[in-house]
Amino acid sequence: MKNLNKYPLWTAIVTPMLSDSSVDYDSFEKILREQDASGNAIVILGSTGEALNLDKTECKKILEFGLSLNLNVPLMTGIGGFNQKDTLEYVHYLNTLALDAYLVVTPLYAKPGEFGQTQWFKEILDASTKPCMLYNVPGRTGVKMSFNAVKNLAHHKNFWAIKEASGSVEDFKKYSESNPNARVYSGDDGLLFDFYPHGCKGLVSVASNAWPKETKAYVLKTLEGKLTKEEAIIWSKACDSLFIAANPVPVKHLMKTQGKIKTDTMRSPLSEKDLIDESPLNEANNAISIWYKENL
Questions:
Q1: Which are the catalytic amino acids?
Q2: Domains of the chain
């Protein structure tokens, strides 16, 4: 088992696709090896990886392919849904793989409260044989992860970390207080600078798909307390460009432009056609390139 705490940056990796929306394994290997070379830990099949748009057979093949590459960095995978029985069956399958951790999102659509969330997370934590990062992303799930549910589960042996992606500094502080034993990571690329003073341990990133070395430098400089306010503004603006359409539409388009993946094809219900104006992405790519050269 790899030491997960050594990795301040986790890339929520995209799932590259060919024009017929089948998985492009050649591009997938290329971008996974690029992350490995940069020393970035990897999340396979998170929301950025379009996990819920793929069927379970595809997901299993993607995971098994990623693991077959024998990368040096840790691999985490996403666990999300709204059917506990199906979810637990999937966890039991995941336990048979050489994964290093699980990213467990708040239940989707149902909007459970403290007790429903506590039960949901506890069942998964109990079934898991790997450390788990609980994931708050109310913009996608429709409900905030309960602070009391976090507190209720604070001493569970498999509760390792929290990914906080609500965009709120106050909520970040409350999650940290709800489980002082958990490592809390930013789930918002552009807010790392704001979360850093409150004990943030790192970033689970979309941006590092397009800028793996650059984002690593940004994260390390921030966590060392050396990132200036002016630099934070550059990064915040660049990261905002990755969300001008539903994630991962913009970052896939940028990666196609960079030559990292062959197409920017999305799996329905997402569509690459929802990106109307690519100019903010081009500006961001140029700004980050200049910033990185200045910081080498």
A1: 135, 163
A2: 4-225 (3.20.20.70)
